[in-house]
Task: inverse folding
């Protein structure tokens, strides 16, 4: 895992003993969830309306895409 990190990150994380510790440290540093965008996507999914002038398949695909983003 260390081999794919940029040089300045290698120096920071090289002291960790195993990949589980490294993954946990990277997750704590970079894995912050953007709650604002999650709420936005949930709102879009909740307020989605099926319309007559577009294909059902196309609209179903949009709903699936929204559902996978949450």
Result:
């Amino acid at each position: 895992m260390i081999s794919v990190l940029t040089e300045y990150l290698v120096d920071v994380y090289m002291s960790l003993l195993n990949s589980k510790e490294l993954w946990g440290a990277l997750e704590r540093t970079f894995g912050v969830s953007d709650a604002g965008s999650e709420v936005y996507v949930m709102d879009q999914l909740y307020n989605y309306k099926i319309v007559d002038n577009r294909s059902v398949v196309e609209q179903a695909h949009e709903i699936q895409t929204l559902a996978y983003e949450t």
